[in-house]
Amino acid sequence: MALTKTIVEEFIRTGDMDDAGFLALLQTDAFDELLKKEADRIRRENYGEDVYIRGLIEFTNYCKNNCYYCGIRCGNKKAERYRLSQEEILSCCDEGYRLGFRTFVLQGGEDPYYTDEVLCGIVKEIRGRFPDCAITLSAGERSRESYQALFDAGANRYLLRHETADDVHYGKLHPAEMSLKNRKACLFHLKEIGYQVGSGFMVGSPYQTPEIILKDLRFLQELKPDMIGIGPYLTHQDTPFREFENGSFELTLRLISILRIIFPWALIPATTALGTIRPDGRERGLQAGANVVMPNLSPVGVRELYSLYENKICTGEEAAQCRGCLEQRVRSAGYRIVTHIGNVKR
Length: 346
Ligand code: SAH
What we know:
By secondary structure, the chain is of the alpha/beta class. The protein has 14 helices and nine strands.
């Protein structure tokens, strides 16, 4: 199909397009400037120059899953494992609060140590100490009852990328005991319970095709998540995917713009993976339509160990340094960090 400027302008106006249009748009860089300009316009219409910050606390790198792309998969015997105690997590929150963070994101592998009892205990403690903050969890697939208990304990948001919306592709990225069906069920449970939900996928993961990315977009249109996180796939030597190349920076930026146009109100992070593949990746992500950054609040001693992929940035800095550095980067990109909790507008 010959994609014309008129068709792309129609997409920008309506926020949707037919399959052939999306497939063509994913495979050409001819409209990248236009997409970026219009995505930035839409983001400014809705959010002005505001960039939300979320403090990321990587609380465990133990994981019972064996996702083929991920450096902390259980099959990676080289990974040195750690988990943070409740006290350590709370002191990360304390520090974050002092630095102006009003959202804490607890992210980790699927670590059976954090039973509902343990994790609810941690959430309740954070909720009690920081009643004015949002608590976001990113701890993988759990039962509906578990999600409900965590919500009742005080969690408000949950990040769970669907990773890929194609069944066959899902099977190529994950061992047989994992399924897209269950992943999707988790996402819908989270929504039903009342969480603000974040989903997303890796760009350029092994065996991904434009047709699969189109499915990702269609699935997101169905799910209507509050946040959409995408970042380039980055290779890790200690995984079965060590021979595969990193995803494309340019395609990730194009997709951020496309997502902004489809979902004018979405919270779209300029991810750490984007900052890892290019030194100015996060700034470029913001300029392409992203409006969230997630600096690291984890204790410096464990940051190297939370190694989903190689060369991850910001592993050496204290939280305060990260905060300061991002402040600069966001400003240099033409935006400003806001510290209020930033509830989703619709
Ligand atoms: N265990 C949690 C958190 C996963 S880590 C969960 O299952 O949701 C957060 C995200 O990092 C994942 O959803 C995945 O999309 C991304 N990720 C993992 N390995 C990666 C890699 N090699 N390159 C880029 N992103 C990766």
